[in-house]
Design a protein that fits this description.
homodimer, 6-stranded mixed sheet, globular
Amino acid sequence: MKPLVAVDWGTSSLRAARIAADGAALEERASPRGILTVPAGGFPGVLHELCGDWLAAPGTLCLVSGMAGSRQGWREAPYCPCPAGFAELARALLWIEPGRVAIVPGLSCEAGGVPDVIRGEEVQVFGALDLLRRPGGVFVLPGTHSKWVRVDAGRVRSFATFMSGECYALLRQHSILARTLPADDGELDEPAFVRGVRHAQEAGSLLRAAFSARTLALFDRLPTAAQPSYLSGLVIGEELRLRDPGAQPVLVGSPALTRRYALALTALGVASTCLGPEATWRGAAALARSLEIP
Amino acid sequence: MKPLVAVDWGTSSLRAARIAADGAALEERASPRGILTVPAGGFPGVLHELCGDWLAAPGTLCLVSGMAGSRQGWREAPYCPCPAGFAELARALLWIEPGRVAIVPGLSCEAGGVPDVIRGEEVQVFGALDLLRRPGGVFVLPGTHSKWVRVDAGRVRSFATFMSGECYALLRQHSILARTLPADDGELDEPAFVRGVRHAQEAGSLLRAAFSARTLALFDRLPTAAQPSYLSGLVIGEELRLRDPGAQPVLVGSPALTRRYALALTALGVASTCLGPEATWRGAAALARSLEIP
C-alpha cells in the first residue's frame, strides 16, 4: 500500500494520522481548526500546516472524510446514495489532486419519503467492519447526532440519525429541567442512568418521559446530583427504544459515550461491542487498499 | 349560588372573572402579574388590585387555581392524588380566608413509579365536562407542557405531561434546525404541518424525526417558509403518536393551539372537539356549586 494520511475533518475539530498498511495509526495529530474556523480557500493551507511533512513523502495518498466535504467545507462532495460499499465510495471520491488528495463523500439514504445523510461516519463503519472482520451488522455512532447504520455484505444499506446529544444539551441547558439540575454533570450515576433508560422504554416518547426528571425532583425521589445521569438515561433510552430487537449493535466512538450506550443496552438485555475512534483510521486504510485493486 | 370570582393564576399571567351561576363569565380581567413577578406576601395585594371591587360584594366566594398554589406561589396547596372529582378537590381546598378565598390544589398521579402533576388544568377539565355534559373522556390541554387527562365517572383517573411546546421552542430557537428555519413562524402551512404529523407516526421518536427538518431543507424538498409548520407537525404528531386509538379527545385551550391539534387529529382519522379557555370559568362554577351541596 502507498503511504497513507487519513484526515477526519469535522465541524469543530480536525484530526489526522499517518497510517500503516494494516490500518494502525503510526502517528496522530489534532487541531481545533474545524471547518467552521476555516475561510473559503483556506483548507489546503490548514491541512499543510498540520501535516505537510507527511504529505511530502513520495507517493502519499491523503483521504479526507467528514464535514470537509460539505457545502460549508473545502469542496462539496455530493452524497453517495445507499446501498454503498467500497466500490461505490471509490467511484464517488472527489479528487482535489488526482491520485494524491481526495475527499470521501458522505452517504445518503431515503426512507418514507425523507432523506438522511452521514458524512465521516461511513469511514468509521467500514473501519469497524475491518476491525471485526465482519461483512455486516448494526453500527451505532453516538454523538451530537447519533447515527444508526445497517450494513449487509459489506455495503451500507440504510441509516438513521437521532439528535440525541443535541437534545440532551437543549434539555440540560435551556429547558425547565435546567432549574433543578446541578451546574455540573459530575460522574455518571449508573443506577439513575439505568432508571432513565428503563423509564424511556415505558414512556414511549421523550416528550413525555422528560417531565419525569422534574416531577421526581419535585417529590424528592431523585437526588439532585443524580439528575443529569437520569436525564442522559432518558435520552439514550429513547434512542434505544427503536432498536432492532434482534441486533447486537457495534458501538463506535469515544469510550465515555460508548460506555453509556453499552450500559444501557446491557440493562435492556442486549449484548454489544465497543470500538474507539481508531476505527476511522482502519476505515481509511481499507478504502485505500480497495483503490489499489485494479 | 353565592357570587363567584374565579382566578387563574399562572406562572406568567393572571386572569380573573366574575362568574354567573351557569358558569358564564359576566366580566373578565387580565394582568401580567404571573406568580414569578409577585414577591412573597404580595399575593393578596395583587389580587385586590385586580378585582378587589368584585371581592367586596357580600358573600362572594373566590377560587384561585393554577401555579398560585405551587411552592413558588401564594401558598403551597399539596397536590390532591388521583382519582379525584369534586368531592376530593373540595376536601383538599386550601382556605386562605375560610368560606371566602380558597386555592384549588393541583392533582398528582403515579404511573410506572413516576409521579406526574397538574395545577390549574384540573379546573379546565371539570369545566369541559360541565360544558359537554359528559361524565368522562380524554381531555388534551395543549401548551408549553401539554396535559392529557383521562376522566371516568366525573373523576380524573390519570394524566400525562408532554413537554411539547417547550421542545418545539428549544428545537426552533436553539438547535441546528434553527440555522435553516426562517426568523418568523408565519402563518400555518397546513400541508407542511400535516406532513410533519404523518412523518412523526412513521419515525417513532421525535429524536429521530426532528433531523428530517434539516435533511428536507438540505435537499430543497421543503420550502424555507414551510419549515416551522413542518417542525410543529413533527412535535404535535409525536404527542399524538401515543394517543389511545379509541378516544376522541376534547381539546381545551387557545383556539390557535387547539386548531392545530384538531387538524393533526383529522389527518390521523380521529374526530375531536375544541373548547376555549372559558372552560376554566365553567369549572370554577361547577366546583363552587358542589361546595354548596351539604
